[in-house]
């Protein structure tokens, strides 16, 4: 069953939230997101909202014109690299199309 664009956007945000939470907890300690990671999450959410490819469900990594700034792109890359393998604990999330 195909997801609606709204569900797709909510899904992408849930995924971002999850991987940034894992990354922050392991690297920065604490239960809540630190300031730096909150900023990164807000940035990612803002990009998801503004993404012109939500309707076609193009994933960020397949996107021909990445919209992240160089700095934010590097930071997200670190988060995905760190948290990606740990998402194995969340197999349901892995089955879907994400970042
Ligand atoms: Zn953090």
Structure, described:
The protein has 99 residues and is mostly helical. The protein has helices spanning 5-28, 35-50, 70-83, 91-95. The longest helix is centred in the N-terminal third of the chain and has 24 residues, at 5-28. The mean pLDDT is 84. Residues 24, 28, 33-34, 36-37 line the site of zinc ion.
Number of domains as seen in the coordinates: 1
Number of continuous helical runs: 4
The helix content is 55-70%
The largest sheet, given as strand count, sense and whether it forms a barrel, is: none
Mean pLDDT: 84
Strand content: under 5%
Chart the SSEs and their pairings.
Elements: H1 5-28, H2 35-50, H3 70-83, H4 91-95
Bound molecules: zinc ion.
Zinc ion binds at residues 24, 28, 33-34, 36-37.
């Amino acid at each position: 069953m195909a997801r609606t664009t709204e569900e797709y956007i909510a899904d992408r945000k849930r995924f971002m939230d999850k991987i940034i939470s894992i990354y922050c907890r392991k690297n920065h300690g604490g239960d809540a997101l630190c300031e730096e990671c909150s900023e990164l999450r807000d940035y990612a959410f803002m990009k998801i909202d503004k993404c012109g490819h939500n309707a076609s469900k193009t994933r960020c990594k397949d996107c021909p014109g990445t919209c992240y700034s160089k700095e934010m792109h590097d930071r997200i890359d670190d988060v995905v690299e760190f948290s990606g393998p740990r998402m194995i604990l969340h197999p349901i999330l892995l089955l879907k199309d994400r970042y």
